[in-house]
Amino acid sequence: MSPMRLEIVTQERALFSGDVDMVVAPGVEGELGILPGHAPLLTALGVGPLLARRGGEELWFAIHGGFMEVTPEKVIVLADVAERAEEIDIARAEEARQRAEQILKERPAGVDLNAALAALRRSRVRLEVARRRRIRREGSAGSSAP
Asked: How far apart are alpha carbons 102 and 110 in whole angstroms?
């Protein structure tokens, strides 16, 4: 099967543009798997990891809302916020997770709990994407035959 084009853009920049064999994206009602030749689709995206496969390579992105347009030859992700796995600062994401969990535990007066929940979800997605990339890289490094 021939590859399809994937473009991931935010308001700030074009994050990725290239040919891929498959995309798994975080839809608002669950994960969406897209292969070349997929029926046309326009859908809202939730917060979660986006995986693109190109040959044996896995490309991971943290997606935080937006829209996805699918045609048989192309997938365009218009993300509110998106990050490549390698751009994620794990220490900073861990600090954000801890702050959000502390706010939700203490529930101080005047704090927007929905905003704290959203911050917790975003930080968890960033950590998940960064760890998946690291695990994949470490697993690949030890898998070559002598």
From this structure: 15
Beta strand 22-27 pairing with 4-9: unpaired
* Cα atoms in the Cβ-side hemisphere of radius 13 Å centred on 125: 24
Q: Up-side HSE of residue 45: CA atoms within 13 Å toward CB?
A: 28
pLDDT band at 142; cut points 50, 70, 90? very low
pLDDT on residue 38: 95
Asked if residues 83 and 93 have their Cβ atoms less than 8 Å apart, the reply is: no
Only one residue has tokens 């897209």, namely 34
pLDDT digits (tens, 9 = 90+) for 29-82: 999 999 999 999 999 999 999 999 999 899 999 999 999 999 999 999 999 999
Gyration radius from the chain CA atoms? 17
Sole residue written with tokens 């600062």 = 89
Task: Give the residue among 116, 90, 123 at the shortest CA–CA distance from 102.
Answer: 116
pLDDT value at residue 117: 85
